[in-house]
Amino acid sequence: MNSIRCPICGRDMPAAGPGDWPDRPFCSSRCRLIDLGRWLGGDYCLPAAPSDTEPESEADEAERN
Ligand SMILES: [Zn+2]
Description:
29% helix, two-stranded antiparallel ribbon, alpha+beta, Erythroid Transcription Factor GATA-1, Chain A, binds zinc ion, 2 helices
């Protein structure tokens, strides 16, 4: 049984048929967008993915103030 590792987040995924896995070789459309963003020259600007890397930055500031 094959498995493929997402080149963006490194998650192991079971190999699936093309119909089951449209974002191959990425685990999700989000990782595909990240890769696309890198190709376009911005490695942190994600065009359509809401950030979950800093989920509490705004809440933190609100609490401190
Ligand atoms: Zn991924």
